[in-house]
Amino acid sequence: MKSIKEETSLNNKRILLRLDLNVPIIDDEITDTTRIDKILPTLKFLISQNAKIIIISHVGRPKGKVVNELSLRPICKDLEMKLKQKIKLISKNIKEIVYKDLFGSDEEKIVMLENIRFYPEEEKNNQLFAKQLATLAEIYVNDAFSCSHRAHASIDEITNFLPCYSGLQLDLEVYALKKITSEIKKPITCIIGGSKVSTKINIIKNLIPKFNNIIIVGGMANNIIKYMGNNIGKSLQEEKSDPIIEEIFLLSKTWNCKIIYPEDIIVGKDLNGNPEIKKLSEVLSDEMILDIGPKTIKVISKIIDESNTILWNGPAGYFENPNFANGSIKIAKKIIENNKSNKIYSVAGGGDTVSLINSLNSINDFNFVSTAGGAFLEYLEGKELPGIKALKLNVRT
Fold it and tell me: Which value, to the nearest 10 degrees, does the dihedral of the CA atoms of residues 157, 206, 354, 300 take?
């Protein structure tokens, strides 16, 4: 995989830049700009090289149809403000565009094509559609790691028609994930949450042979607490999860990886209830487990202190309610504390985890925070991502 940083001749070259600008938009207002902010370095680099930039991205799931509410217009305006550059949004049918339509003058440096998923050919990885896209540029750059688990035309097939490179953000993402999956500095610990253990089983199975500790929290931990013979009341749980839990413990013994789960918990009568610290054996039938308790926080903090590398994916409880956010906040602060003193290499990912870190204004206090979602999880499972594979296969010298 070749990085765009390695290309020395970008002056006046037309760059087809695939980004993931799929940000939440309500009434034309962007409510979270994290994904936009993360790709600014790539855009600024290309601007500094005097390149002509053609941005491709998507918002939402229009399913191959034009949906006005899913226009990239608000994103275009946000980027204009942050880059202090005029950006032309081109709504003309991509199949009818020729490269001469893109830039009206030498002063125009950036254009944006309208939502690429307005076209059914995109998600079908259509060869002719990818070939048409390729006629617009001289170089292709993928800086959309979070879309790279999709074999779509602007991610996969496009690389067959242009010299292709990875972008700066994609480089950072792959570097961070390599640091926690193949170039590991041990001891290494994974803190993993989420509602269903079945959705994370392949990640856990892939990480157990490489990791020293896997700490299971959140809704996933409820299944283990129940498996150990405790009542979990009205807590979030997954049916028929016992075989999965048995497999996790068996595999952990084989590879000498410790599985840690809560020793005490915080319960409430409902999601808006008052918090109460309880032992695992004390949960009543009308109570819900909504956070980890102080003993568990102490155990996790000690493990973080003893680790050189940390992967965090999933909060420890129902952090949306401050009454049940303490466990997640304490984990975040302990990682940040060790990160600031250069004791650990830390990677965090997953929508809820990113939301929590954002709420603490601490995105920059981790070595890397991934917004990639599905691609992040599939990489952790050990899967080869189509977008990354395509960049590797189609390197041109």
Answer: -170
For residue 262, is the peptide bond before it cis, meaning its omega torsion is within 30 degrees of 0? Answer: no
Residue among 391, 375, 397, 379 nearest 157 (CA)? 391
Cα→Cα distances 150→2, 32, 154, 354, 390, Å: 20, 23, 10, 22, 11
d(CA 268, CA 364): 33
Q: Give dist(CA 169, CA 311) in Å, integer.
A: 19
Instruction: Specify the pTM.
Output: 0.91
**Would you say domain 4-168 falls under CATH 1.20.120.1760?**
no
Q: What is the pLDDT of residues 163-204, one digit of tens each?
A: 999 999 999 999 999 999 999 999 999 999 988 888 899 999
* pLDDT tens, position by position, 17-31: 999 999 999 988 999
Instruction: Compute the distance between CA of residue 190 and CA of residue 213 in angstroms, rounded to an integer.
Output: 6
**Whole-number Å distance between alpha carbons of 2 and 161:** 16
Task: Indicate the helix (H) or strand (E) that contains 132.
Answer: helix 127-134
Rounded distance between C-alpha atoms, residue 289 and residue 59, angstroms: 35
Coil/strand/helix, residue 137: coil
What is the C-alpha to C-alpha distance for residues 385 and 373, in angstroms, rounded to an integer?
13
What six digits make up the tokens of 182? 């193949």
Domain with CATH 3.40.50.1260 in the chain: 4-168, 175-380
End-to-end alpha-carbon separation of the chain, Å? Answer: 11
Q: Are 158 and 33 in contact (CB under 8 A)?
A: no
In this structure, which topology does domain 175-380 adopt according to CATH? Rossmann fold (3.40.50)
Residues 290, 291, 296: CA angle, nearest 5 degrees: 150
Condensed to tens digits (0 to 9), the pLDDT of residues 316-353 reads 999 999 999 999 999 999 999 999 999 999 999 988 89
